From TrEMBL:
Gene Ontology terms for molecular function: hippurate hydrolase activity; metal ion binding; N-acetyldiaminopimelate deacetylase activity
Cofactor note: The Mn(2+) ion enhances activity.
Highest taxon listed in the record's lineage: Bacteria
Organism: Paraburkholderia bannensis
Peptidase M20 dimerisation domain ranges (all copies): 185-283
Record protein name field: Hippurate hydrolase
EC number(s) stated in the UniProt entry for this protein: 3.5.1.32
């Protein structure tokens, strides 16, 4: 590992920031304390601060020399509505809210890099530090873009990191092309005619129809989609009826669709609508379909992914970088930034939980688990990566 000595020396300071943020988790678009802390630290280090993008987002701008190149480094700041089970000192002080996705660590790693770059950075160009709100289902990245993020702070490329439990601590995973999936949700409302359960011929059964639709939808994955295109369709809810002897008037089912391309998603949505509508028609029921596209797929551009992998190898060594990491069907709103700019999203191993402090709750250190905690050993790794990435990127022609 080639970590930056000044960053290693600042470990306890950065860890202090991480634990303060962990202890005061804030949900999407409510990150006022966190953004205040971020803004005050950036200002303290002499970085130009802009606030209010995407409501609670913060942007720091650091410019040196006359270089025209610019790079965007992004961290997310929001927490989740989870009751934390850990009892260590930096546990959540906010009931029902918790940093269970490690965004406290992401924010701290980027702050660590910002401090170093402001105090010791040798580069020529502009570094834009982006602290975004509301990654967890609030599309905070999109909100910042809508508020003029890239018009006000143009960047040549944009980069992001997510900690990754299960991957050894300090290892990086990255890949060209899709690294995370699009996230979409659907709901199908079926209206029939209720009846006595013993006299079904008097009605039009929405429960039977819902089951036929549920079965039919899986044919999209096995019969319509090209086998080599990755996609998941999961029905996660089916609701109908209140009594064993009554066929109800209505039924509904809902679920999620994940894909790596918009073309596959277009196909799945069209087939889902057709199967729902034609199946309902076949059984004399009516149907209403809603299909919501939440986050697009996170797709890394080739040059930036290769560049990021090169920097990772310099920081942690060849044997700690997987540059063809298996993509995940999870989703991430950094995808909205990658629709605007070339760039790269990567995983940083959080370890298997061996870093647990005393007072760690039972259960694994997995993302969105009530016993999760960000691995502080990663702080100098992530910060060193950010510094090397920005410095090297700006030195390129
Ligand atoms: Zn999350
Ligand atoms: Zn996350």
């Amino acid at each position: 590992m080639k970590l930056i000595p000044e960053i290693q020396a600042a470990q306890s300071e950065i860890q202090g920031l991480r634990r303060t943020i962990h202890a005061h988790p804030e949900l999407r678009y409510e990150e006022t304390r966190t953004s205040e802390l971020v803004a005050s630290k950036l200002a303290e280090w002499g970085i130009e601060v802009h606030r209010g993008l995407g409501k609670t987002g913060v942007v720091g701008v650091l410019k040196r020399g006359n270089g025209t190149r610019s790079i965007g480094l992004r961290a997310d700041m929001d927490a989740l509505p989870i009751q934390e089970l850990n009892t260590f000192d930096h546990r959540s002080h906010n009931d029902g809210k918790m940093h269970a996705c490690g965004h406290d660590g992401h924010t701290a790693m980027l702050l660590g890099a910002a401090q170093y770059l402001a105090q010791h950075g040798q580069f020529d160009g502009t570094i834009v530090f982006i602290f975004q709100p509301a990654e967890e289902g609030g599309a905070g990245a999109k909100a910042m873009i809508k508020d003029g993020l890239f018009e006000r702070f143009p960047v040549d490329a944009i980069f992001g990191i997510h900690n990754w439990p299960g991957m050894p601590a300090g290892f990086f995973g990255v890949t060209e092309g899709p690294i995370m999936a699009s996230s979409n949700e659907f709901r199908i409302d079926i209206s029939g005619i209720g009846s006595h359960a013993a006299l079904p011929h008097n009605g039009r059964d929405p429960v039977f129809t819902a089951v036929q639709i549920a079965n039919g939808l899986q044919s999209i994955i096995t019969r319509n989609k090209k086998p080599l295109d990755t996609a998941v369709l999961s029905i996660t809810q089916i609701h109908a009826g209140d009594a064993v002897n009554v066929v109800p008037n209505t039924a509904w089912l809902a679920g999620t669709v994940r894909t790596f391309t918009t073309q596959t998603l277009d196909l799945i949505e069209a087939r889902l609508r057709k199967i729902a509508e034609s199946t309902a028609e076949a059984y004399d029921c009516s149907v209403e379909v809603s299909f919501l596209r939440n986050y697009p797929p996170t797709v890394n551009s080739s040059a930036e992914a290769q560049f990021a992998a090169e920097v990772m190898r310099e920081v942690v060594g060849d044997d700690r970088v997987d540059d063809k990491v298996e993509p995940t069907m999870g989703a991430e709103d950094f995808s909205f930034m990658l629709l605007e700019k070339p760039g790269c999203y990567a995983f940083l191993g959080n370890g298997d939980g061996g870093h647990r402090d005393a007072g760690h709750g039972v259960g694994p250190c997995m993302l969105h688990n009530a016993s999760y905690d960000f691995n502080d050993q990663l702080l100098p790794v992530g910060s060193s990566y950010w510094v090397q990435l920005a410095t090297k990127f700006l030195s390129q022609q």
